[in-house]
Design brief:
Chain lengths: 394, 394
């Protein structure tokens, strides 16, 4: 009988994962994931780019690379993703990662000692809560409203806890779909500087905007160099490629690089080179423009279905982009119980809200719906099924 | 001024890395890496496989996958890599990783608490020492001889320290090229069972054998289910793809999976699917057979050059495979100093031995030479250069 380290014993794979195994059932319509639409993928372009890369640079594609990442990708990110957002970086500000999850993990590795207090939105991304559990951080939740994290509460909690790190998903947040307002973006940067706290600005959804005006990242206001900005190709090109980027000060990047060396030496070259070439061919803006109406239709369909089919007492967010809608039922409602009925009896799935909370006793009456992964027909059908599961429980 | 976590402050990127930056100099002949030969790559096959995968299964290639790994790869590993070594696994015994480094990192995450004592060969893989530094393990070195780790010393140190984990590279070890004998493989499994210790059997070089008979992995003798066996596609197909595998008991795999979820969600699909298809097409045995004579020529060339050009007092290993030769000079010799002269004045590089030691005060008189990455001509030329660097220092 082997004895595991505390680190992994602290991380609870959670009841959600167990229930997700049920979803292997092909009859289930799932609003549970966070996937981009299969219809958004461009396999022919990826195929052509890959063939060209393996023809022109076979050794570079197949041999070892550097921990900091494929240089053409770091350069293409600076030019085609950061610059249009008004950000100026040098290569020394960028490392590439094996998906954004690794950016979160490395940043936490680099800044959070066991027992340190960290601040997160309530609710927040459940995988990040798992990483915090792994390093035994003391996770304190900051209140949110429709404009994202409340910076008055953030200020109070920074003061009260001496937290070293703030984790935020400012745009079309996971799980709520909410977006941090411009003023609050400035406030977060200011408060971090004032308290010497590091900000992980996890922004994988920012380019999936279907209405309203784009907002500058918190990183734009980061005069004190405290912000680590994470971007990802998962939602805009392909999650299966597992490519993300980290932008941070030239002081921070080497420590993240050391952590990455310990984690996987470097990210696979071919996926990085595919993303670089995709950007350098200037394909991203057109792709975002052409996929936005498809996603907007899915979002609008789901919002209309909530209105049509779900209980009148359900409150829900109306995001301008991203992939999630957040639903809140009256106190006493149990979304976990709903999930069991929904998956087993009505063949529809979602994620209950409790695991997105620092204290999993919170948010039992909430749930997350993903609208990006299913076609409008499936959304219509799935939401009708979900209405039956609600009816059975209420 | 941000404040980093102890975890990353403990990991020293080491003087070696600084010197390696000099190696961007294209005139330098490097025996410093651990790379397979560019000449071993099969870009046309990879290209054809990739095109087929993206044509036949575009969504599966580009969408999210599971943390445990691409199922056809787990199955192909069981059939084409484990089975020929006499090992029988179920899918529940296997997860795929982003290179073997991640297998090392996840295993250490899952089993080593801060301050725990772990046992390693002396010398051992320097990246593993970095991961142990990150978790603040107490690393105790076990003596080696020509037959690998001395199991009498291992027994004594298990007894004396109560170590929870043994890390070993049994075949064509990094950095020495030595191979653990059959009897000792059995002993390691027995001793681990006796002391309730976990064994990380890191075996990325085992299929690069150029002479002698293949030996069964330690995992073959693992009646107590204590051995975590790591294999890698880096040396046999391509390191740039970053694909490795972990084989362990069905009790251990879920904890490694939790650690992997925290690390990168999952490994990129396309590289995993390429490796699966490569195995399923039955290409590996022929590839190993056809590359072995090339590697053997490089090994023999380097051994002959050591004999011809290097100081007579140099002792060195004569491996039957792998990619490394280990050189030991008399006490008092400083390989780090040699490296400075060699790279700056004579344009040849290697890795000094000290960083491969748990106590970096050890092994200053040793160095590691890689023979797989350079053609015989380059080896000849590089070794002549190295002889001049030696002459300048002695």
């Amino acid at each position: 009988m082997v004895q595991f380290a505390d680190r992994v014993n602290r991380v609870n794979p959670s009841a959600v994962r167990e229930i997700f195994k049920l979803m292997a059932d092909p009859e289930i319509i799932s609003f549970g994931g966070g996937s981009p639409a299969n219809e958004s993928f461009e396999p022919d372009i990826i195929k052509e780019i890959t063939a060209e890369l393996l023809t022109k640079q076979p050794d570079l594609m197949l041999q070892y690379g550097t921990t900091e990442g494929w240089t053409p990708l770091r350069d293409a990110y600076i030019e085609h993703i950061a610059k249009p957002k008004g950000l100026a970086f040098d290569r020394g500000n960028i490392i590439t990662t094996t998906g954004s999850t690794q950016g979160i993990s490395l940043s936490i590795d680099a800044f959070v000692n066991e027992g340190d207090t960290v601040l997160v939105e309530s609710p927040t991304f459940l995988a990040t809560l798992m990483v915090f559990a792994k390093v035994n951080a003391n996770v304190v939740a900051v209140d949110m409203d429709e404009d994202g994290m409340r910076t008055d509460d953030l200020a109070a909690k920074l003061e009260a806890t001496g937290a070293r790190l703030i984790y935020t998903i400012p745009t079309f947040q996971n799980p709520t779909g909410r977006t941090l307002s411009l003023e609050r973006r400035k406030d977060v940067a200011k408060l971090a500087a004032l308290h010497g706290a590091v900000v992980i600005e996890d922004d994988p959804y920012c380019d999936l905007r279907y209405s309203g005006e784009a907002l500058p990242p918190i990183k734009s206001f980061d005069d004190a160099d405290n912000v680590i900005m994470l971007n990802s190709f998962s939602k805009i090109v392909s999650p299966g490629l597992r490519v993300g980027t980290v932008a941070a000060s030239a002081e921070i990047i080497p420590k993240l690089t050391v952590a990455k060396q310990c984690s996987d030496t470097h990210t696979a070259i071919l996926p990085q080179a595919i993303c670089a070439e995709y950007l350098n061919r200037g394909l991203l803006p057109g792709h975002l423009k052409s996929t936005a109406p498809m996603y907007k239709e899915r979002l609008d369909t789901m919002l209309a279905c909530i209105e049509k089919y779900l209980p009148a007492e359900a409150e829900y967010t109306r995001p301008d982009g991203g992939v999630f809608i957040w639903l809140t039922m009256p106190d006493g409602f149990d979304a976990q119980e709903l999930l069991v009925t929904a998956t087993q009896k009505y063949k529809v799935a979602f994620v209950p809200g409790a695991p997105f909370h620092a204290d999993p006793a919170d948010g039992k009456n909430t749930l997350r719906l993903n609208f990006s992964g299913a076609t409008p027909d499936k959304i219509e059908e799935g939401m009708q099924r979900l209405s039956k599961a609600f009816a059975a429980q209420l």
